[in-house]
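Worked Example 4.2. Consider the chain below.
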Amino acid sequence: MATNTLAVTALTVRLVLPAFSDFAEKAELDLPLPITQARVTESFVSKSKTRPAVSITVDGRHYFHWSSWVDDKRFGMKADLMKGKISYVDQSNRLAAMPGKLARKQSLITTNEAREIGLGFLKRAT
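Applying the procedure from the previous section yields the following structure tokens:
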């Protein structure tokens, strides 16, 4: 069973790569095209039957997410596996990566100066 899951995941990722490449070209994103499976550093395929989704990270930086239209009776929307939306995030400057990046840089202020700046902000914010 596990090997079938891996095969389905790999096939699903391969099937959405052309859509992600097309999106990247139209959005004029800063990454070489086409997006190939060899450049996918992370992937996730939703197992949900009602909210199918695929996420990939390309070159460890470019995050793409596809999800199908969701059933929403208020707006007359019906889930459609052939239609969906793509979102993109450039992860090179995301907040979660900053601690590692900042740890390699020498601070321009002392610990005491940093504490004073923080306390000053808290006083002004309250």
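Residues 14 and 37 are 6 Å apart (CA to CA). The helical segments are 2-26, 98-103, 111-125. Compare this with Example 4.1 before moving on.
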